[in-house]
Amino acid sequence: MTAPVIVEAHHFQALLDALHQRGYQVMGPTIREGAIVYDAVTRVDDLPRGWTEVQDGGTYRLTRRADNALFGYVVGPHSWKQFLHPPQLRLWQAQRQAHGFQIVDAPEETPTYAFLGVRACELHAMAIQDTVFLGGAHVDPTYAVRREPVFVVAINCGQAGGTCFCVSMHTGPRASSGFDLVLTEVLEADQHYFLTEVGSTRGAAILCDVPHREAQPEHLATAERIVARTAAQMGRSLDTTDIKELLYRNLEHPRWDEVATRCLACGNCTMVCPTCFCTTVTDVTDLTGQYAERWRTWDSCFTLDFSYVHGGSVRTSTKARYRHWLTHKLATWIDQFGTSGCVGCGRCITWCPVAIDITAEVRAIRESDGTVPDAIQE
Amino acid sequence: MMATYPDPMRPQPYTVRRRSKEMGGTFTLELAPTDGTGVPPFAAGQCNMLYVFGIGEVPISISGDPTRPQPLVHTVRTVGAVTRAVCTLKRGAVLGVRGPFGSAWPVATAVGQDVVLVAGGLGLAPLRPVLYYVLAHREQYGQVVLLYGTCTPEDLLYRRQLEHWRARFDLEVLVTVDRATSPWRGSVGVVTKLIARAPFDPSETVAMLCGPEVMMRFTIMALRQRGVAEDHIFVSMERNMQCAIGLCGHCQFGPTFLCKDGPVLCYDRIKQWFGKREV
Amino acid sequence: METLEPLLAAHPFFTDLEPRFLQVVAGCATNGRFPAGAFLCREGEAANQFYLLRHGKVALQIGVPERGPVTIETMEAGEVCGWSWLFPPYRWHFDVQALELTRVLVFDGQCLRAKCAADHDLGYALMQRFAQVVVQRLQATRLQLLDLYGVHV
What we know:
The complex is a heterotrimer of chains A (378), B (279) and C (153). Chain A has 13 helices and 16 strands. Chain A is α+β, with helices and mostly antiparallel strands. Chain A is globular, with a radius of gyration of 23 Å. The termini of chain B are far apart. In chain B, strands 11-9-8-7-12-13-16 form a seven-stranded mixed β-sheet, sandwiched between helices. Chain B is globular and about 50 Å long. Chain B contains five helices and 16 strands. Chain B has 279 residues and is an alpha/beta fold. Chain C has four helices and eight strands. Chain C is globular, with a radius of gyration of 16 Å. At the A-B interface, strand 6, strand 7, helix 4, strand 13 and strand 14 of A face loops of B. Strand 10 (180-181) of chain B pairs antiparallel with strand 5 (68-76) of chain C.
């Protein structure tokens, strides 16, 4: 592979231009409505230069940095799944006919994406969704078509977010695979550059159009130091030792009842989680009844209808729905897909209106493993 | 960019060739592809997603003979908007079919053993393909027993066929109803009660259960009491099913996706989830 | 006349009953027969007997005026019919009608009640067995009550 190089911050626009020239629609961080979200970026000025977030349970605020870092934030409410696994997708259209109906082919333009600023946890989340959508007996055609050509520019986090726990989940902060290029942003003394490591031949090729110079050992050491500092800053941890067995044997733990007194079943966590993939299929028709469409839209296991079987829903209580979400994310996912479903990005903690913390819930159950509801002693 | 992947969400038009009324609100449809192509083979226990234009799609078990997959046979009961629409389709009407999906009843692993089928209510429909298959390969199996329970004698599904099966010498059919008015001289009582006197060897039996979950729970207790091993008992589970290809997440039951790991599951595999509330 | 003891001893209901109790119980038993259509008992009547079904089939029925007799449960060979003899007010709660020719062992409940009152060990042994029958019938009834096969939307 190509050796690591240095790209000066003032040459960063060249990278964006190189991607655009190759036909990529670059999706990257940008500020909108008080948050850093992923949207189309063309100029370096579109990036959240000099901004960072303060995150905690149920809290997200943008604040100014003391420097001009382009990627000085962590993760916002968006994840990359919205581009690969669209929130709303028309699956097909059909026209009623004299005898039956005909499905109409409506070929859609699929954009060719470049993702700019993908965190290590997000790389793992994409790999997890790859397993879900591409690894089963039925491949999701939409995901496959969108995923295949994606150009990934990853970024090693320069700081931990307020709710991150990627170290516990072994998903970061260093990006190790799944990228075409990975950058580590360095702002020291008067320098502002990106240590750029190559992860694919595509990545090496694009560097031809970006001014760069060879990286020296001290650059590599600096980048290492930054990543190590990030790893040391984790504010939360989740002990994943035997977590599947732990949750499987505590399905009646009173903690579920306790968290249910706080959980609003709003579904925010499932919307912001980069691995949640549930959808609902809806068949609609126009008023004439001659034309029908099938749509697929994001769904959440927190909705009452999610588990509806003729007659009623199986999981009617908030307790059952929260328990389902957490045990799926951390336990049954392992049986289903071979890995945890959680990448430790902390979004569910940040975006929960009542600040429910997945790491605290697991800790509470682990510390009182085996507790069953019992009579209150008089 | 051209999609190079098959689209498993696209239904294929099938025409209703025949429609017969079973008991109240329940109909059996015989279907064939509208374009004249063949019906794909299926294994006993699998289901299709049936689509009524503009209304919606539901999972329905295939109730026909797996050794003769054409025409495609589905028994449907009205329980909601889509099933009501399916039940009103007349001969010549077209509906969409996707499938077959799901796991199969263990007819292969049951070879050489006794076969006990316990059906409750409409649960006889997903089990009928097993009976067709086993009877077509009768010499491969030991005792074959069908235990069937339903609400009242008026609710007996496939009644004529039941009487026909009951008349065979190589098949034991025991039928019971939850309640009956006087013309009925058959058994009245829960289907679990039939297990104690059914003729099978518990140490050499594969049991396949289909019906309301409560009925399956108590049937398992009765089978266990007679000595049938947990890994020889199979159930057909039901949950909300939408995509049927393991990607929408709705049909999860514990760690299993009923559309691909199920709907037929070995009790041994799911016993720690089975019967747990709101799972 | 050969005694009924061996017959009782072989019956699952009396398995493991101590021989001295079996003797007492056998002493209160006689063979009986009901042709198809005959009633083994009627709702409301004094319950001074219980039956061990040896052959045939009977229906436990409740007479519902506008619906006719509704069968709650059928019982066949090997089952025990009747526990009202053991509990006050010692009255039958249901009709029991033979659906086909049914051979039974008829037990004199009045006589056995007195014997149980005199010998509590006998009483306990019989109570254990009848309680088991009641439990099984109750569990089955609860399942039947659920109307599991109906459409509930």
